[in-house]
Fold:
Amino acid sequence: MKALNFGSLNLDYVYQVDHFVGPGETLSALSQSVNPGGKGLNQSVALARAGAPVYHGGCVGAGGELLAALLEKNGVDTRFLRRVEAIQGNAVIQVAPSGENCILLFGGSNQQVSRAQIEEALSQFGPGDYLVLQNEINNLPLLVDLAHERGMILALNPSPYNERLTGVDFAKLSWLLVNEVEAEQISGSGEPQAAWEAVHSRWPGVSLVVTLGKRGSVAFPAGGGEPVFQPAFPAKAVDTTGAGDTFTGYFLAGLMEARPLPECMVRASLAAALSVARPGAADSIPTREELENELARRS
Ligand code: RIB
Structure:
């Protein structure tokens, strides 16, 4: 069993600020850095650091070579990455003293995924393999339809939630992973139980995970099992960027190892807590060894 993550790679231009800049305001940042990011790249790194065999499909544009190199350094197979004539996808991120962020995205190279690239990559995957998706690349409906035809297990983190998801057939997913804002956008309620009832009545085969920040996370399995609530591990937040991606990667890696759902939730939640205590997105994701040590220390 292996995972193909078709997703974005971004250069994150990160600015530490004492408050988020407002309309018409000019604000001096306290510091600046350029870091590897993108929900796709972050989730591939999280999957790989968690120990899963992962391939990354996506597009690298001008200035993005270091992102491909970072994936490779982390053990992600990059044979399905393509070089394209476009500026590398990027994000401008403000990080407040609370660790909270706000993000401005530019798709760039991430919007150049072609049908031929998708067909070539998917031809190497089949029943039981995972396809992991977020909403920062083009051609998502095609990816979902073709991967479903091949019998793959589909997991979607529909972030950012916007009109580009309109053509995606959610009934073909096995897992939907959302935060409370996205839960509300999809179902009309940010309250997990109500979101689950709405999702389940619409797409009965889809299992749902809702992350709730400091309030923890909850998983609702489609097969009729009990929901699993996982409290958040306490953490001193330095930078929450990429915490959701860390959760998603570790959660899916747990499923791929056939761990019981409560164990997947513990590991994902602890990995996310470790990530928020460090700056950056991909850079902040813990290794499997760090996670095991932390689990042992807390038991
Ligand atoms: O989820 C965090 C990521 O969102 C950042 O790395 C940024 O690139 C945006 O894609």
The first strand starts at residue 3 and ends at 6. The chain has one domain: 3-7+39-85+115-298. The CA atoms of residues 9 and 161 lie 18 Å apart. The longest helix spans residues 261-276.
